[in-house]
Amino acid sequence: MTDPDLHARASALFVALRDLGAADRRKALRAAAAEDPLLASEVESLLVHDVADGRDVADVEWSADRLDRIGPYEILERIGRGSSGQVFLAEQHEPIHRRVAIKIVPEAALSAELAARFEVERRAMERTEHPNIARILDAGRTDGGLPYLVMEYVQGPPITTYCDQKGLSLLDRIRLVLDVADAVQHAHQCGVIHRDLKPGNILVASIQDRAIPCVLDFGIAKPVAGTFHADTPPTLGVPMGTPAYMAPEQTGLVGVDTRADVYALGAVLYELACGRPPVDASGDPLEVLRRIRDAVPPPASRVRANAAPASVLADLDAILAKALEKSRERRYATAAAFADDLRRLLRREPIEARAPTIGYRTARFVQRNRALVAAGALVAAACVLGILGLSIGLVQANRERAEALRQNESQREINRFLTEDLLAQASPDRAGADVTVLDLLHRASDTIDARFPTRPLVAASVHQALGEAFAELGSLEDAERHIDRALELRRASAGPDDPDTLRSEIARSSLIARAERFDEAEPALRACVARARAILGTDDRDLYTALNDLGVTLEGRGKPGDAVPVLEEALAGRKRVLGAVDRDVLTTQSNLALALDATGDVQRSLAMLLEALRTAEALPDPPRFTVLGLNNNVAATYQDLGREREAAPYLLKAGAMAADALGPDHPATLTIQANLASLEAKLGDPARAIELFEHVVAARTASIGAGATDTLIARHGYLEAVRAQCRYDEAAAGFAELLADVERELGENDPLAAQTSLSLAKARFDAGRVAEALAPAEWAAFRLESLYGGDHFRASAARDLVARIRSGTPAGD
Question: How far is CA 276 from CA 242, 410, 497, in A?
Answer without folding.
Answer: 14, 62, 59
